[in-house]
Amino acid sequence: MRTGVDERKARFERLVGGCHRDLYRYAAWLCRDPGVAEVVLQEALLRAWKSLDGLKQDDAAKAWLLTIVRRENARYFASHPPPALDIHALSPAQEAMLAAEDDVELEDLRRAIMKLEDGYREPLLLQVLLGHSCNEIAEIMGIKPGAVLTRLHRARNRLREAVVQGAGLAAVAGQSDGL
Amino acid sequence: MDCEAYRQAIGADPRGGFEGAAEHTAGCAACRALTAELLALDERIARALAIDAPAPALPDLEMAAGGAVVELAPRRRRPSAPVWLALAAGLALVAVFALRGLTPGDAYHDQLAGEVLAHMDHEQSSRVVTTIPVSNTALDEVLHAKVSAFDTGGPIVSYAQSCVINGHIVPHLVVQGRTGPITVILLPDENVEDVIPLSGESVHGFILPAESGGVAIIGQREEQMPEVGEVGERVVDSVKWSL
Asked: Do A43 and B130 touch (CB under 8 A)?
């Protein structure tokens, strides 16, 4: 017979197991360092475990966990201000994060995403990686929906420029002359 | 909706989930082409964001559930000393290390210092400010093969890993000091006969002789050095190898 703790643990593992990969990717792109992302994610999961009883609906688990990861990331960088990003002098772990076997264009695009300012990169993550609507992104980030639209538009514009400048010109830019 | 408004909106959401999108593209070939381009770009972005993720690794939930505090190896009772005495000891150590730093170390010591500093660069993410200790299980796993007793002087141990330094698997710990995380690397297999100063790009500390081995104690800032000295003194004073 299962104890209460076992059931709680099983519930937590089920909820986290369903979105662990997305949580890690979100953390990694937020902090731009896979090593730090693992630390942030572990701390976030510990916090989530401690407050699991406050989660009333399992359907809302992913959004709830994302919020905890986001806060944990902010907490981490409050005490560890990140050094200015030098895209030409990344750590081996950052280089490994960007690496895409046999796909130089994809690697270039990852590099361009890493170079985006936090305020542009995060809404893009939330929309493209995690499937959130603009209104949901506005709520998560605590900004107005109009600001989300502007940031998403600018983020894509920058990535498009990066792709156009790189080897992916023919594959992605097509015939159009811009936004 | 005119082309300019459409382009603004489609740039924010290429799936076109906004009012008037379908009507506009039905009569505008240029905007249809732009939409196709942006959808292709989004596919590439989605692929780019899908970096490899490690296998799910949940934290030690049982430890977290109980809110347990990690008990370190049995602590040797010491007469309590006033804080100023500990600080003075720390400062004295710093002075010794500074003087030691003026003289060239031998090749073995230099190599060991280089190995420790290189390892610090590699594991930057271990130095996190946190109130969450590692579990007793994790700590025991890292320590049991090498150490029978040691004492950090009170701070919680927030990180414990077995790492390879100079060809030996050694315990790498991080304790939460008053002024920030302090790294403690136990080096029972080394032959440390003298204090070895450590000075990296963003870390400072020293390797201290302890029993037949050594202990590396490293802080992140020079201002942390008195506390690093305190922790170092206590660890060296208490460490017992189980080799």
From this structure: yes
